[in-house]
Amino acid sequence: MALLCLASWGSAQDIIPLDTLNWDIQAKSYVLETYKGQEAVYLQGGSLSLKDGTFLNGTIEYDIYLKEVQSFPGVYFRVNGANAEQFYVRPHQSGNPDANQAIPLIKGITAWQLYFGERYSFPYEYHYDDWTHVKVVVNGDRAQVFLDHSETPHLSWQLFHEAKAGGISITGGNAQGMHLANIKIDKNNYELKDFQPMDRKPIEGLVPEWQLSDKFDEKLLDDPSKVDGLIKGRKWGATIAVEEGTAANISRAVQRYDDTEGNTVFAKIEVTAAKSGFKRFEFGYSDRVVVILNGTPMYSGNNRWRSRDYRYLGTVGLFDAVYLNLKKGKNTLLLAVSEDFGGWLVTGKFTAPEGLKIK
C-alpha cells in the first residue's frame, strides 16, 4: 500500500504516509507516533524531504501542533539545490505583524531582513492546544496561504524564483521539536482565490546597482594599513540591482555557504563629482559594514540581529549616514559587507546628488 501512495502522491488528496519509504528524514531526532488522535511524526532539529517527486504547481497541506516557543516550522517548495520558495510560522510571535513569513531561499540564505512587512507576513493568533492546519497554493509565479481551513487567503505574494519544478521539504520547529501530521500534496489543485498581494513603497533615489567583488574573510579588514592591498587583490564580477525598492541582495550573486572561505564582499560604485566637497551618503547593510572612500576606511557599523537590543531584527533601511569628502572627478566608494544570517544586503543614496554621476 505504501508503494501505491508513493507512486501517486501528487495526483489526489491522499495523506502521504509518514515513513522512510516516502520521506527522507534528516533530523537530530524523530519519533513516528500517534499524537492527539493523529498519526504523526515528532521532528526535532531537521526536516522531512519528499522522495521521488517534484512539485511545480498545486496545493501543499499539513497539520502542525504548535508550541509557544521561538521556532520557525514551515515548508520549502520548488527546492533546487540551495534555492527554494518558503513559508513558515513564528509561533512565538502570535498576534504580531510578523507572526509568519513568506520568503525565498537564495543560495542558502533566507533574507528576512529584506523581505519583511505586510507584503510577506500577517498577524495571526495561534492556538497551542490543537492542530494548526496550513495550506499553501502555488500557481506559476504566485502563491497563497490559508490557515485553519479558512475559505479566504491570509496572504498572497509573488514568488521570487523563476517557476521551476523542485522538491518539497517540511520542517518542524528546529531544536524545539514539533509534531506534524496529515501531509497532502495535490498537483491538480492550483486555483488561487482573490489574489491581491500587498504593495511596498520604494525608497526614492537609491543607487540602483552595485558591482561585487569575490568573497574574502572579514578579519582581513582589521588592519587599515592593509586595506589597499586587499582591494587590489580582489576579482570583480557580478552586478546586482536593488529589489523591493529597498536594497540589493548580495546572495543573488555570491554563495555565502560553500566550500570557499569568506563572509565578506566589496560592493562598489564609482562617483564622478563636478567639484570637490562633502556629500551626505545614507546607507543600509546586513550584517556588518566598513565604508571605504578612495582606499581609505571611513566608517564601520554593526546591524546584525540583536546587535542593538534583544528585540532588534537587523532589517535593512537607510539607518546610517556618513559625510564623504569627495574629490573633483572620479571617486571609488566601497562598502565591505559581511554576513552571518538573515540577509546579505546593501543599499544607499546621496541626499543631495546634484553634481554627481554614479556608475
Q: What features would you highlight for this structure?
A:
359 residues, mainly beta, 12-stranded antiparallel sheet, 11-stranded antiparallel sheet, 2 helices, 23 strands, elongated, disordered N terminus
How do you describe this structure in short?
The chain has 2 helices and 23 strands. It has helices spanning 2-7, 227-232, and strands spanning 23-35, 38-50, 58-65, 74-80, 83-89, 100-106, 109-110, 132-139, 142-147, 155-158, 167-171, 178-186, 209-213, 236-243, 247-249, 264-273, 277-286, 288-293, 296-302, 320-326, 329-338, 345-350, 356-358.
Topology:
Blueprint: H1 2-7, E1 23-35, E2 38-50, E3 58-65, E4 74-80, E5 83-89, E6 100-106, E7 109-110, E8 132-139, E9 142-147, E10 155-158, E11 167-171, E12 178-186, E13 209-213, H2 227-232, E14 236-243, E15 247-249, E16 264-273, E17 277-286, E18 288-293, E19 296-302, E20 320-326, E21 329-338, E22 345-350, E23 356-358
Antiparallel strand pairs: 1-2, 2-11, 2-12, 3-8, 3-12, 4-5, 4-11, 5-6, 6-7, 8-9, 9-10, 13-14, 13-16, 14-15, 15-22, 16-21, 16-23, 17-20, 17-22, 18-19, 18-21
Written overview of the protein:
The protein has 359 residues and is mostly beta strands. 3% of the residues lie in helices and 46% in strands. It is elongated and about 75 Å long. The protein has helices at 2-7, 227-232; strands at 23-35, 38-50, 58-65, 74-80, 83-89, 100-106, 109-110, 132-139, 142-147, 155-158, 167-171, 178-186, 209-213, 236-243, 247-249, 264-273, 277-286, 288-293, 296-302, 320-326, 329-338, 345-350, 356-358. Strands 1, 2, 3, 4, 5, 6, 7, 8, 9, 10, 11 and 12 form a twelve-stranded antiparallel β-sheet that branches. Strands 13, 14, 15, 16, 17, 18, 19, 20, 21, 22 and 23 form an eleven-stranded antiparallel β-sheet that branches.
